[in-house]
Amino acid sequence: MHPVVEREQLSPNVVRLVVEAPRIAKVRRPGQFVIVRKGPGAERIPLTIADNDPEAGTITLMIQAIGASTTELTGLQVGDAIQDVAGPLGAETHLLNAGHAVCVGGGVGTAVLLPIVRALAANGVSVTSIIGGRSKEWVILERELRAVGEVITCTDDGSYGRHGFVTQALQDELDKGGIDAVYAIGPVPMMKAVAEMTRPYEVPTQVSLNAIMVDGTGMCGGCRVTIGDETKYACVDGPEFDAHKVNFQELADRLTTYRSFEQAALARQADEDAKGACATTEVKA
Amino acid sequence: MTDAASPAPAGGSDEGEAKAPLSNKERMAIGRVSMPEQQGEVRAHNFGEVNLGLTYQLAMLEAERCIQCPKPFCVEGCPVRVNIPRFIKALRDGDMPAAAESLLSDNALPCVTGRVCPQESQCESVCIRTKKGDSVAIGYLERYVADWAQGNLDKLPNHIGARTGKKVGIVGSGPAGLTAAGELNKLGHDVTVFEAFHAPGGVLIYGIPEFRLPKDIVQAEVDRLVDEGVRIEVDAIVGRTYTIPELRETYDALFLAVGAGLPVFMDVPGENFKGVYSANEYLTRVNLMGAWNADSATPVLHGQRVVVVGGGNVAMDAVRTARRLGAAEATIVYRRSADELPARKEEVHHAGDEGVVFKYLTAPVEVLADENRWVTGLRCIEMELGEPDASGRRRPTKVPGSEFTIDCDLVVVAIGTRANPLLTGSAPELTVNEYGYLLADEYGMTSLPGVFAGGDIVRGAATVILAMGDGKKSAKAIDSWLRGEWPPTDPMAPEAEAAATPA
């Protein structure tokens, strides 16, 4: 069992959990992920490891409540435990050793980006992070990113920072020049837009792909993605790839495979929550 | 769930003594029993076990058919060298504890092998009775005795050896790993098994479906090993969580049995459309993650018309699973003819009874999909058989202009696996062959001293029993290694190799 030792609500649907996983904390490298299974009968969910503390034996997970299973995980409180945490999985991020990097994060992608930004800064790379969200409350980890580099925030509604998408801010940075690498992590349309934007500038661009996975060790092939002319497995060959070679259309499409199941599961969950609320009311009455 | 084997009546052994022994002529006159099974049209819609197990009367009748050859070929035909006449004799005598003890001393997982071994190409194929009719139903009898043993462990002696203080690490908890774990623990060594998934059992849990090998049977076999002192660490991925060099520092010997791993796809256009699964993914979702249950948190696509590409046991498991998940049409597409099907005969026969359609001499050329990239069909081409290839089987070649389409909404690819590079990648000193499989010597030792390997990661995709044979053979070699007797004097190793003809 892996107890939750710290919990923080970062945005309306993103939670930061610090969980005990001593073995993984000891060997984890930036860019790697774990597969967690909350308990018997639960789904296996891949989650990027945002941070590790080998001394304390803990790892940090940033979880966005999207489906029923991630909603269950974000509901965990300090003292609760996750039954299975397997990893670290995937290849480590290929990091610049010098120069200037722009890191673009959207939604929970910003959380996945944080360890990369920190590792780049530790390498002596100057980093500009461009992060965004729908509105102010959806912009996360600005303070942490600012501690290690420059940060540009963007909101779709203009309630905070620049008004507009992260890609517009990226365009300005590209026009300024002097960028040695771009790291982009977020929703597939955002990563696709970043890839298209950096392509004419020939700036090496890396993205982290959130493909559907079961085992995370290359055994099921569910996470297969097309990179250039080749089929690769996001779990063992990735999760990070050269953005200019990724078939984003196919990835976006494969991510919709279980949409109807996910909607049904969420509806079931809402139903149960409603029943739970009634029961509580009855007890009180 | 499975029906437990019917228990022997309390007075069983007395009855056996009271009867006069049959003559060989009388034994030869008894016909082979049939395995009671769920009716095809019924079982095609449930996940309950297909074979129900022999009754006590049927088992005793079948046991009488064994003529107790002085030089039994059946034992030679068994990759783990089960002393078949010995346990059948004890069964015939009504001495169930003796039969169970005999079987368990030879075979760490008899409930499993009694269900999934290809007996018709191993022990039963060389049974002397095949010269004049049907072999003794060794597999059925093995299952009968093993199921009795599982329900009566308290009646069996415990043969765990004195502790040696030596530590052995086993990577992978499939049939090879569990067999080696059981043997090494019995020999007194401290055994820790590392499993990448959250549950032990390997292919017995994620691959072979409930209707062929109930998961509570596998769990009981695992529980027995744990009760005997074997430690199992789940969620431990060797090559990621731990490395081989690291484990070598902690353990006096290692046994690598991680299985074959990576699924092979067809390499045809369209295979990344939604509705194309590897058999590994399809079966793992259904078996390990429980997606056969509609309330499961893990989803699986339920095809109405399902095509499974391949002709092995995994293909049969996938196509029969598809029927049970509600597929009105479930079709096997296989590029050779019925004669070359690598699957166990019983699985092919069971699939046919359950309404599975077999398209022989057919190969996939393209997956078709609608505008939303959901699978709508599999474009195929007819094949004909030419000259034998390197495997000795006639090589299939395409018949020009014979393309046709099978309409379907799900395609499951079951054409084999490749070596998973996660483990070997973490220890470059391990020598692998051109396919990435580990090279091991006649005793199962790899290029690293004290590191042994067996099962599919050495053989490529094979069978449960061959993996178990490797586990048993390597356990004996590891024991010799730990005792400083090298090379091993035990003759088991070369013998087992000779018997290990691919099924």
Task: Report what the structure shows.
The complex is a heterodimer of chains A (285) and B (503). Chain A is of the alpha/beta class and 285 residues long. Chain A is 31% helix and 31% strand. Chain A has 8 helices and 16 strands. In chain A, helix 5 (166-176) packs parallel to helix 6 (188-198). Chain A starts with a strand and ends with a helix. With 503 residues, chain B is α/β, with parallel strands linked by helices. Helices cover 34% and strands 15% of the residues of chain B. Chain B has 20 helices and 16 strands. Chain B has helices at 12-18, 24-28, 40-43, 56-63, 73-76, 84-92, 96-106, 110-116, 138-151, 175-186, 203-206, 215-227, 244-250, 279-286, 313-324, 345-353, 421-425, 456-459, 464-482, 492-499; strands spanning 167-171, 190-194, 231-233, 253-256, 262-263, 276-278, 305-309, 329-333, 357-359, 362-369, 375-388, 394-398, 404-407, 410-413, 417-418, 451-453. In chain B, the strands form 4 sheets. Chain B has a 5-stranded parallel beta sheet with strand order 3-2-1-4-16, with helices on both faces. Chain B has a 5-stranded parallel beta sheet with strand order 6-14-7-8-9. In chain B, helix 16 links the parallel strand 8 (329-333) and strand 9. Chain B is globular. Chain A binds chain B through residues 23-24, 27, 37, 41-44, 68-69, 83-89, 214-215, 217-222, 224, 226, 231, 233, 236, 250, 253-254, 256-258, 261-262, 265, and chain B through 196-198, 234-237, 240-242, 261-263, 265, 272, 274, 277-278, 280-281, 284-285, 289-290, 296-299, 301, 372-373, 420-422.
